[in-house]
Amino acid sequence: MSKIVPKIITGGNYTDERGQLEFFNEFDMSSIKRVYFTTHFDTEVIRAWQGHIIESRWFRCVQGSFSVKLVAIDNWENPSDDLKVYEYELTAEKQEILYIPNGFANGFKALEANAKLMIMSNYGFNEIENDQVRFDQNKWTKWDN
User: Global pTM?
Assistant: First the structure.
């Protein structure tokens, strides 16, 4: 089980007569190799549970809002049913990035139609094999909001 825990990386913003600047000065992007986006057209779509043994990810909501849930996997072939669920709400209005360390499974659901999530990874597409493990979407939590 992962000893590193998920965390929120907080950014900020500055506004003057020229416009607004949003920033993440404390976010070290040196390990990021890939960035992609997922847009949920409605709030019924649930993407859960997907875990990574080796890969770490960072989530940033760029439009709307998402409910994101995480569990630290104790056994990849037969994980416990009663794992602690970490819950986060990411919104485009907040300058926040959610760090998801390797060893965790994640699930997420849009809370608003057309919500968009930016996902960053420390590995390139297909750079590592057999790292993605999927579990039933209702294994650790219900997705009713």
Answer: 0.91
